[in-house]
Design goal:
- Strands 8-9-10-13-16-18-17 form a seven-stranded mixed sheet. A five-stranded mixed sheet has the order 4-3-1-19-20, with helices on one face. The chain has a four-stranded mixed sheet with strand order 2-5-6-7.
- Helix 6 packs across helix 8 and helix 15 packs parallel to helix 17.
- It is 36% helix and 17% strand.
- The chain is an alpha/beta fold and 507 residues long.
Length: 507
């Protein structure tokens, strides 16, 4: 049995114009290059990347696809309609079936949400702020098509992708029974924050897909917000019935010989950990740490019977295990390393392949606009590297470098590291003779700057084992040895010590 798992498509509707570009004009609505390079994802390439993913899935002969949320880039009706047209095309031409859950960019709880984006046309000139809020002062352009969906809107729009019983499945249920009345997802006490559109489906004989809606909403400053940080902690607190339902599903799956795979938008475990046994703990930069669930949530999900859980949200490829639970982090098609996961299962085995995108026809649709924008402003080297990219893989690599330089290096690290970015490793280790002497084993590392090590950290964190295989063997050997050498030296307080700890959690 094979399925594909696709996370964080973030489809930006190039051709619908969000009500701004006249339908049939032949022009396209582009996000600006500056916004793209300052984001954790690329925008204008999403349509081509998603099509390339689906074409690769067809090539493999896979016909069942799970979309792990953030299928749209902020839930505008036009973007969702564009996604549905793509899905319908692959359903009709290739017999594919799609099962969907929500991410934090697809819907916004009990209410719609105003959205505003800087858009340009194909020439890349004269960007305009297009907004759904008619109170935004000029020169912003008001277009109601920019409005992000409420959860009720999103459920109605995507109902046929798992939220009601699909045709030609062997089993389907929800935490609330077998009714496919969409009102079922609303709690009995009418608490609008308690929406839950989880479901269990058997699309292939013997394969149960437990697709969990992990969006939990709360009021903050008068507006509805999704608890996307440590999401599973909030799910288990707000939905006490969830673990009982999962345990019941897991017990029935075991009794009837079903392979059970679970899915949600958010990680069920911290995606980087250090230590062993009871000493295991999350180890990552502060921004990542606050987005991860507690180990207790992972333990409870494992105790309920989940063995395999697939998550998105973080735009990375990776695998982490804890207390009999395996969490597969599924990469996004629109962020480095770019791809999806192909899953083969049967006879108690689950094999997962991270399928990476390289050649994406049409990824350079916005190239003319990008070149025009670069010429009109002083943009850094990552922008020029992205424009010069010969294929989609290179484009995402350049985008990641830009995000690391402009965002991560400035906000993720303590002052001692930020102040040492341009210092060579040899100089950083000179205060500790034992460490300095270790460089004889890696003669080329001495002049390597700390900034380059930090860049490697982010690429490894995003790309996992494939990135590690692509880096020079000498460098990976040094990274694996560094933590042990620091511990053996007894040296503390060095800028490189914190980085070594975080690297160790990934390697």
């Amino acid at each position: 049995m094979q399925i594909a798992v696709v996370a964080d498509v973030h489809l930006h509707d190039l051709y619908g114009g969000y009500g701004w570009i006249e339908e049939g004009s032949g022009d396209i609505a582009l996000r600006t290059f500056e916004e793209t390079m300052a984001s954790t994802r690329v925008f204008n390439e999403s349509h081509a990347a998603f099509m390339a993913v689906l074409d690769d899935i067809v090539r493999r002969g896979i016909r069942v696809v799970v979309l792990l949320g953030d299928y749209s880039d902020d839930g505008q009706p036009g973007a969702v309609a564009a996604l549905k047209r793509i899905l319908s095309s692959y359903e009709e031409r290739h017999g594919m079936r799609f099962f969907v859950t929500f991410g934090n960019h697809d819907c916004f709880g009990p209410a719609t949400r105003h959205q505003a984006k800087w858009l340009t046309k194909g020439d890349g000139l004269d960007p305009l702020l297009v907004t759904s809020n008619d109170e935004t002062p000029a020169p912003a352009v008001f277009q109601i098509g920019m409005l992000g969906m409420s959860t009720a809107d999103a459920v109605e729009a995507m109902a046929n992708y798992g939220f009601i019983r699909p045709d030609n499945v062997l089993h389907w249920e929800t935490p609330f029974g077998h009714s496919d009345d969409l009102a079922r997802g609303y709690p009995v006490d009418s608490n609008p924050a308690g929406l839950d559109f989880s479901y269990l489906v058997e699309p292939l004989e013997g394969l149960w897909l437990l697709i969990l809606d992990a969006n939990v909403f709360h009021r903050e400053n008068g507006a509805w917000q999704v608890r996307s940080n440590a999401a599973w902690d909030h799910v288990l607190k707000q939905r006490p019935y969830m673990l009982n339902w999962i345990a019941n599903v897991a017990e029935r799956a075991s009794r009837s010989g079903k392979m059970l795979l679970a899915f949600s938008h958010y990680p069920a475990l911290p995606l980087a950990m250090t230590g062993k046994g009871n000493m295991r703990k999350a180890a990552s930069t502060p921004d990542w740490s606050k987005r991860m669930p507690s180990l207790e949530s992972g333990r409870l999900l494992a105790q309920a019977g989940i063995r395999w859980h697939f998550s998105g949200h973080m735009h990375v490829a990776g695998r982490i295990e804890y207390d009999s639970l395996v969490n597969l982090a599924v990469p996004s098609p629109v962020a480095y390393p770019g791809g999806y996961v192909a899953v083969t299962c049967g006879e108690g085995r689950v094999d997962c392949e991270f399928a990476r995108l390289k050649d994406v026809p049409g990824f350079d649709t916005a190239a003319t606009a990008y070149r025009a924008q670069v010429q009109r402003s002083d943009m850094g080297p990552a922008f020029h590297e992205a424009i010069a990219a010969q294929d989609y893989s290179d484009f995402l690599h350049a985008h990641q470098k830009g995000v690391i330089t402009s965002i991560h290096l400035q906000k993720d690290w303590p002052p001692g590291i930020v102040e040492s970015l341009n210092i060579p490793v040899r100089q950083l280790l000179s205060a500790a003779p034992y460490l300095a002497s270790q460089l004889k084993h890696w003669p080329d590392i001495g002049e390597f700057q700390l900034a380059h090590m930090l860049e490697d950290y982010y690429f490894i964190r995003s790309g996992g084992e494939e990135t590690m295989r692509a880096l020079p063997d000498e460098r990976m050997s040094f990274y694996r040895h560094l933590g042990n050498a620091l511990h053996a030296s007894g040296t503390t307080g060095m800028p490189i010590e914190y980085l070594a700890t975080l690297l160790a959690a990934l390697l």
